[in-house]
Write a structure and sequence with these properties.
CATH class: Alpha Beta
Oligomer: single chain
CATH topology: Rossmann fold
Distance between the termini: 7 Å
Number of strands: 11
CATH architecture: 3-Layer(aba) Sandwich
Largest sheet: 9 strands, mixed
Order of helices and strands: EHEEHEHEEEEHEEEH
Shape: globular
Low-confidence stretches: none
Number of domains: 1
Length: 220
């Protein structure tokens, strides 16, 4: 992997920003800077932007609905115009959908409860992940992780091989068991599971390392 620099956009209510910074720096040797939501950044400053999990702005209105208008997100739009990669995890996925950088929406879990547990994840139909032949136990922690999209969008995701991951056992009612998707140019990834929470062996979980390495190798 070439030498790159990453930025992590932090909102009021983000709670996984330091986690992904630690993982990127410690396990992937990627210098990573925290970007406060109220600040802009130069689109040439970072090779990768991550939008972390949490509860941006307390999830008022809808998850990600307010975060999408922040100054840092305006810089992110410029970043994406240069086809630079973006990863949105959990709340980050919700924000990317609200910003229309990814299609569809994340709504309340089918049981209307917050879900926090390890779930079995398998590869989607995207060629980036074709060698991921196993089942990977990755934590989820969300109340609104139920992915929804209209039939035309679902057909596009399928036909264009833009489904990154499926749930092997669906925890939230997500349509077609979808756990993560890619943008049309396959440079923006959104996923609900938290691979950064299953990367450090000190947690007793390392399946997330394989998932993150595959993501980074494909996008960078």
């Amino acid at each position: 992997m070439k030498k790159i620099k990453a930025g992590v956009i932090t909102f009021p209510g983000s709670n996984c920003d330091r986690d992904i910074q630690y993982i990127l720096e410690t396990f992937f040797n990627i210098p990573t800077k925290i970007i406060w939501h109220h600040n802009t950044f130069n689109e040439n400053e970072f090779d990768l932007i991550v939008i972390p999990g949490g509860f941006s702005y307390g999830d008022y209105l809808r998850c990600g609905a307010i975060a999408r208008f922040s100054k840092a997100m305006q810089s992110l739009f410029e970043h994406t115009k240069k086809d630079k990669p973006v990863i949105g995890i959990c709340n980050g996925f919700q924000i990317l959908c609200e910003a229309k950088l990814l299609p569809g929406a994340l709504i309340r879990n089918i049981n209307l409860l917050h879900i926090a547990k390890d779930v079995p994840l398998i590869k989607g139909n995207c060629e980036f992940f074709k060698h991921l032949d196993g089942v990977y136990n990755i934590p989820v922690s969300h109340t609104e992780g139920n992915y929804r999209a209209d039939d035309n969008t679902l057909k596009e995701l399928q036909d264009e091989q833009r489904i990154a991951f499926y749930y092997k056992e669906n925890p939230n009612g997500s349509v077609n068991n979808i756990a993560g998707i890619l943008s049309k140019n396959k440079r923006i990834l959104g996923m609900m599971p938290h691979p950064e929470r299953a990367t450090d062996p000190i947690n007793g979980k390392t399946d997330g390392y394989i998932i993150l390495k595959t993501i980074l190798d494909s996008l960078l």
